[in-house]
Amino acid sequence: MDAIAVITIVAGLVLVLLFSIGLVATMFRKVGPNQALIVYGFGGTKVIKGSGKVVWPMVQQARELSLELMSFDVAPQQDLYTSQGVAVNVEAVAQIKVKSDPISILTAAEQFLNKEPDVREQLIRLVMEGHLRGIVGQLTVEQIVKEPEMVADRMRSNIAEDMSKMGLEVISFTIKEVRDKNEYILNMGRPDVALVRRNADIATAEAERDTAIKRAQAMREAKISEAVAEQEKVIAETASQTRQAEAVRDLDLKRAEYDRSVQAQKAAADKAYEIQANVQQQQVIAEQVRIEEVRKQGETAVQEAEILRREKELVATVLKPAQVERQRIETLAEADRQRQVSAANGNAEGFRLEGQAQAEVTKIRGMAEAEIIRAKGEAEANAMQVRAAAFQEYNQAAVIDKLLSGMPEIVRAMAEPLAKVDKITVVSTGSDGSGGGTGLNRVTADMGTMVAQVPALLEGLTGVKVADLMREVPGLAGSADGTNGNRRIPSNGHLVGDIEPSAKRASVVAEEPDRDPTE
Predict the structure, then answer these.
(1) Beta strands 46-49 and 80-81: pairing type?
(2) In whole angstroms, what is the distance from residue 439 CA to residue 416 CA?
(3) Do 12 and 87 belong together in one domain?
(4) What burial class does residue 135 get, using C-beta atoms within 10 Å of its C-beta: 0-12 exposed, 13-18 middle, 19+ buried?
(5) How many folded domains does the chain comprise?
(6) pLDDT tens digits for 366-399?
(7) Final residue in a domain of this structure, among 66, 94, 111
(8) Angle CA(29)–CA(33)–CA(34) in degrees, nearest 5?
(9) 130 to 77, 96, 101, 219, 464: CA distances (angstroms)
(10) Helix ranges, 113-189 (H)
(11) 497: CB partners within 8 A, 6+ apart
């Protein structure tokens, strides 16, 4: 029984609580940020904005007041007179709202809380029309038309105090249009329009004049530019033709230079071929002369061997017996001296005999040495006679042989300075008219000229002409066709073929004089 009572009590309390909450929820009034809740009654008048409050029934009452912006036209039905006495009709637009502070809200609530919006706007419009009439009466038509912002500023400053007394504030005031029935505003702009039109005509004329001047200047500059361009074109064409002519000239010069170089190289090749042929011919001749020289040297060696044999024969047949005889005489003299010394036995006579014996020995030795010297001199004289006889047989052909065999050494000595030259720079502009060629060909020609001067040099040093030597060689000038045996004289003057020497072997016959055995 107790549990049921407790449950019943709890349920009743819950129901009472829920009912109380529902009752309180129905009494709670709330408003947004664009509205204000005016609660009056028990506890006085209170302003609630953007929140809520419980309004107790029977003891309190609540009304809502809009805080939104109010926009309406201000257009008085009657004309407004300016300071000039001209009647004008001014239309404007005003934006007004209730101030947000509690005092202004209470002030606006006191005056407009129970009025409809149209009635409220009508009251505000009447106040603003009155102020607008007073402001227009202080201004001229020109000021109202030309300075609308000044009129709006004055309007806001004049009605601010009255609006504040009603809890309102002016957000903006703008003049839409100003009209008049006497066309004052229309005629007011005509002088300015005429001035503007005149200025426009003057500006147009000046612009046309400037345009004509600019056009003339542009045409003149265009003509000048065209003339300059034509002149530059002529100059460019002339320069182009000049460059073309120079190019053709340079091409012709280079072609001529190339042809001259080709001809020079061809001539150099031909000349080098001739020189090489001559060099080969000279080498053949030099080789033949060298063979002849070797043969001559062999014959000379045989003759010298014969001379040495004869000298040894003289030594064996003359000197050796003389030396033996001298030793025999010396031995006899020494024995005689010993004999005389022994016979003397130390006396003065013995010393005298000993001296005589020594003198005799010395005399005999001197005579033997003199005989040996005489025999050696006769042998050397005989050898020189054999050499002289051999050289007498050494005819002009052998002399020419020696000359030609020494020619390579002469040419090598002449060319030796060139072998030590590291680099040769040849500056040549053409043939000098001497037929020697140009460039390296001239160097070869100069060497040939120097070699050709060797016979003249030999003639200057010795007085003997090579041509005379060649004419005196037996067989070289004896044949009408230039041949003699196995020798041939070609048209170029070079000697070709074997040159047979006419030297004969000489027999050396010498008497064998007595020689000193000591030699």
Answers:
(1) unpaired
(2) 20
(3) no
(4) buried
(5) 3
(6) 776 777 777 777 777 776 776 666 656 555 656 6
(7) 66
(8) 100
(9) 12, 16, 27, 69, 160
(10) 117-137, 141-146, 148-165, 184-188
(11) 288, 486, 487, 488
